[in-house]
Specification:
single chain; 492 residues; 3 helices; 33 strands; 7% helix; 46% strand
Length: 492
């Protein structure tokens, strides 16, 4: 038997830029099959070349080895000196070549060359004059850092460094930006403890951004106590019509957006607002405010499509999550809520307006001590619909009004006049909901006389009374109410 011969030969037509030793001539022990690439065997050489090409492609997409950049090439993201950080691109891939039916051959190893790593430019607000002394307004430094980051032709990061607190007033982060960018909030951004003339109803606003992400583990502090004390709900002499308290963070007209790993607290009014956005992922958020703070909704969704709100803890003085007009394809999963007013769709149809909400899934939630559980609320005189809604896998603990539809919602000091038109509520499913009710009426369907609820389904719903007494259900004006599963208690 002759020895196997190997020699190095470049293959410029392969997808990989660099190849190591590649077998070029094979002899097998049975001497019956000889595959030899040479001038005299052009057809078989072509077959072998094609085989090598296939192997190379397989190698490029084989088993990855993680790239670990050396300390010489990477800078800490909180660095206050140079701002360029190399980022790994495609990992090095290695794969042991194995041909079918030729188990004796296992020598070649093909390696794919890695592209030059991409660079990310960091724009640290400290470099633009932001001071964390508790009294200096850092708004201008934030604006300048944003302008530079947004205009950068390379990937960029807007950085608020950790262990520092920066005070800012109203600020608008506007796009579109030239390249993909992220905002890393590792420290604390805090509002000044003062009232100001607000015409836009925002404190921190993100507008017209695509492929944008906010993250970092930091804190957004609205410092909202002075606003709460001046609302009409606490200061009775203050007219409610003139209130203009801002939301802490507003995302307006954004697409392909991620908001993750942040703590948002003590907002002046609503904490986090998604308005006219498409394709949103909000996750690992902690939203907190005192239980008596007025109008401090946790997450508010309006005129937004295709949004996921997951793995978050919300404890505020109003709705944990509120979904209102123009919203569609909403998924709320794995949420802890309370104190607060529960998870609400609405209010809808205020001031005789048309409201439309559809395709909402609330799957996996734990509500504790809230004034409502899962709620749909609408004003009389409105129009439109709330339909195709599923509430499932929900645990209630000492919750007032655990399941409620109220088409006679009226949040005014004087009584609301009865009207004929109403927002249509239809195709609503309540499935696998357990727990205790702090109120006597655990299930309340208060539907309109003129526009009754349609197609309500309850499956495996069991709610008992917290303390003494029996839980009750009150249901009116429903067309098509169905009970499924082993039990539904209380039942209409």
């Amino acid at each position: 038997m002759k020895e196997k011969h190997f020699y190095k030969r470049p293959f410029p037509f392969l997808p990989c830029k660099k190849l190591s030793w590649v077998p070029h001539k094979f002899f097998f022990s049975n001497s019956t099959l000889i595959i030899e690439t040479g001038r005299k065997m052009i057809s078989k050489a072509f077959s072998f070349t094609l085989l090598i090409v296939l192997v190379s492609f397989s190698s490029c997409f084989g088993y990855p080895i993680k790239f670990q950049p050396s300390s010489k090439n990477c800078l800490n993201i909180d660095s206050e000196s140079p701002n360029v950080v190399p980022q790994p691109s495609l990992p090095i891939n290695r794969h042991r070549v194995k041909f079918p039916n030729f188990n004796q051959f296992n020598h070649g190893v093909v390696r794919c060359a890695r592209r030059r790593p991409r660079q990310v430019i960091i724009f640290n607000v400290v470099h633009f004059g932001a001071k964390a002394d508790g009294k200096t307004d850092a708004s201008e430094a934030f604006r300048n850092a944003w302008d530079r980051a947004c205009k950068s032709s390379k990937r960029s990061i807007f950085l608020v460094p950790r262990h520092k607190t920066y005070h800012i007033r109203q600020i608008n982060f506007t796009g579109p930006c030239k390249s993909i960018m992220k905002m890393e909030i590792k420290g604390t951004i805090k509002a000044f403890s003062e009232l100001y003339n607000d015409t836009k109803r925002f404190w921190i606003n993100f507008h017209n951004l695509s492929n944008f992400e906010v993250r970092g583990g930091g804190i957004i502090d609205g410092n909202g106590e002075i606003w709460w004390n001046n609302t009409c709900k606490i200061k009775k002499t203050q007219p409610c019509e003139n209130e203009q308290a801002p939301a802490a963070m507003t995302f307006d007209n954004c697409m392909n957006l991620k908001v993750t790993n942040l703590q948002i607290q003590n907002s002046q009014q609503m904490h986090l607002v998604f308005q006219e956005c498409v394709d949103v992922k909000a996750s690992y958020l902690k939203v907190t405010a005192p239980g008596k703070s007025p109008n401090t909704d946790g997450i508010h969704v309006t005129r937004t499509r295709n949004i996921d709100i997951t793995m978050s803890e919300i404890k505020t003085g109003d709705d944990c999550i509120s979904i209102v007009n123009g919203s569609k394809a909403i998924r709320v999963m794995d949420i802890e809520c309370g104190p607060g007013h529960g998870i609400s769709i609405g209010s809808l149809g205020e001031n005789q307006s048309e409201s439309r909400v559809s395709d909402v899934l609330v799957n996996g939630a734990r509500l504790s001590g809230t004034t409502n559980g899962v709620r749909i609320k609408s004003w009389q005189g409105g129009s439109g619909y709330a339909r195709n809604i599923i509430f499932q896998n929900i645990q209630m603990q000492n919750v007032s009004n655990p399941i409620i539809i109220d088409q006679y919602y009226c949040d005014k000091d004087e009584s609301c006049h009865k009207q004929k038109s109403a927002v249509q509520v239809m195709n609503v499913v309540y499935k696998n909901i357990r727990g205790t009710s702090a109120s006597e009426v655990a299930i309340k369907f208060n539907c309109s006389d003129t526009v009754p609820c349609r197609a309500l389904i309850l499956e495996n719903v069991y709610l008992s009374r917290q303390g003494k007494g029996e839980a009750e259900a009150k249901c009116s004006n429903i067309i098509g109410l169905s009970n499924f599963g082993r039990f539904v208690s209380p039942s209409c």
